[in-house]
Amino acid sequence: MDSIPVNLQDLKPEGFKEFLDSFDHVFSDCDGVIWTKGPLAGVGKFFSLMKKHGKTVNFVSNNSLRSKENYEDRFREAEIENGFDYLTIPSIAIAEYLKSVNFNKKVYSMSCTETNNVLKSYGIEFKEGPDVGADYYEDYLQYMKDDPEIGAVVMDCDFKVNLPKINKATTYLGRPDVHFLCGATDRHVYYAPGAKTLAPGVFTELVAEEANRRPVVLGKPGKAFGEFAMKRAGVTNPSRVLFIGDMIEQDVGLGRATGFKTLLVLTNTTKETMLAHKTIRPDFYAESLCSIVPLLEK
Ligand SMILES: [Mg+2]
């Protein structure tokens, strides 16, 4: 079990200075930390003060659903300059990964439109679908035919996930040289207290189990994703990174996997839930980014 997380608010000035001196780079999650429906209070101030203290600021999100324009608008509303230029998301990590292995076949994509757009922008060809399956099991053999053109299976947010697609992905992954990449591994997305839906992680796990393969996780909390974010930011020492997030599994989990220091903001989690977590605890916690602003101004 990790040690007891430190409440930044409880630190004396010298303790807070020690905290500030313990990292050079801030990597921050977006949804639930910087904005919910709209920007959260004080976030622009928080990041500009961090920069004033000599820290580099980067952003890491599991959300590949937003377009570049939507991200740019959100960063602007949050008063964060050029935020998108410093953002790492799974779709970009997946495209960069394929580029790095000189990928020259086609992707079978079980993803959202925006992820497919990113693949396209990298010149990576992909196949997808079908969105509707056959009515009888005997007609499913057509989805179990291998396609030699496919050299990678990519799984992220696919709102039209279905049996034909799962059969296709599993079939292609039967060839050991077919890359298996995924973005977000979240098993659920929460709409409101008590209202949740299944999320991509459930379907990725299903395909992984059926194909007896493990995906390269290019989303939080995958170590490969954390290392990719570091590479993009030109950071070599993970222990000099402070990762800020609102989710224990994804954000603190990524920090643990990659070797970052972690700060949990309690915008979506209570202190009790944080302390009750069986395996992962953050190094630090705070109510919100806004609550840290007065400490940075001292
Ligand atoms: Mg979040």
From TrEMBL:
The keyword Magnesium applies. Divalent metal ions. Mg(2+) is the most effective. Transmembrane segments: none annotated. Pfam families: Hydrolase_6, Hydrolase_like. Mg(2+) binds at D29, D31, D246. Gene3D superfamilies: HAD superfamily/HAD-like (3.40.50.1000). Its cofactor is Mg(2+). It comes from the Eukaryota. The active site is at D29, D31. Substrate binds at S61, N62, N63, K220. NCBIfam families: HAD-SF-IIA (TIGR01460). This is 4-nitrophenylphosphatase.
